[in-house]
Structure formats: C-alpha cells, structure tokens
Amino acid sequence: AADAFSDSLLSLCTPIIAKTDDGIQQAINSQAVLSQQIDRVSAELQSFLTASQIPSFSPYAQRLAEVRRRVTAANGTLAQVQARLGRIERLADQLQADAVEPLPSAVEVGSPRQQHDSRAES
C-alpha cells in the first residue's frame, strides 16, 4: 500500500515539478535579457544626462536603477526556487528508490503483540 501511495504521489508531483522548473528557467532567461536591456538603456540615458543639462530625466534614471535592482532581486529569488525544486526532485527520486526496497514485516521485526504472546506462553 505504501508503494502504491508513493508511486502515485511521485507520478503526480513529477510533471508539476518539471513544468514549474521549465517555467522558472524561462523566467530566469527572460530576466537576464531584461537585465541586459535595462543596463543598455541605463548606460545610454546616463551618457545623455551627463551630456545635457535636462534635470527632468533624472527621476527616470533613478526609476530605471530601481527596476534593475528589483530584477536582480527577482533573479535571486528564482534561483532559490529552482534550487529548492532540485532538492525536491532529488528527495522524490530517493523516496522512489527507497520505496522499491522491500520493507521488513512486523513478524520479522517482532511485533510487541508477538513478544507479549511468547511471554504469556512461558
């Protein structure tokens, strides 16, 4: 019964974990592209700001720097989630491998009831 439960739980979780892992990887890739574009635009904006004396672009440059900081933080969070999913996958694989090994039965180990019965016969 435990084998059937662990097999069904594993078969339920594996596709979900794989789909989530793929989504996280796509998000990480998108975040990397976005971060590169933000860096490029920020550098261009910074060079424009230093060349001109237009103070109205200064808040936008600050906003862009804040967005870059948040994208970097989101990348860190995504990496942590991906690492956790990897640990869950390894644990699921280990549980599946452990489920394949036969469990000792209560008779082989000597159940408390069996020990009580043998004392009563003595």
Care to describe what's here?
It is a single chain. With 122 residues, the protein is mainly α. It has helices at residues 2-51, 58-100, 106-109, 112-121. It has four helices and no strands. Helix 1 packs antiparallel against helix 2 (58-100). Residues 106-116 and 118-122 have low confidence and may be disordered.
Major sheet characteristics: none
Mean residue pLDDT: 79
What structural category characterises the helix and strand content? mainly alpha
Helix count from the secondary structure assignment: 4
Overall 3D shape: rod-shaped
Residue share in helix: over 70%
Multimeric status of the protein: single chain
Measured on Cα atoms, how large is the radius of gyration?
A: 29 Å
Number of β-strand runs: 0
Q: Approximately what portion of the residues adopt beta-strand conformation?
A: under 5%
Question: What would a concise description of this structure say?
Answer:
The chain has 122 residues and is an all-alpha fold. 88% of the residues lie in helices and 0% in strands.
List descriptors.
122 residues, mainly alpha, 4 helices, 88% helix, disordered C terminus
Outline the fold blueprint:
Blueprint: H1 2-51, H2 58-100, H3 106-109, H4 112-121
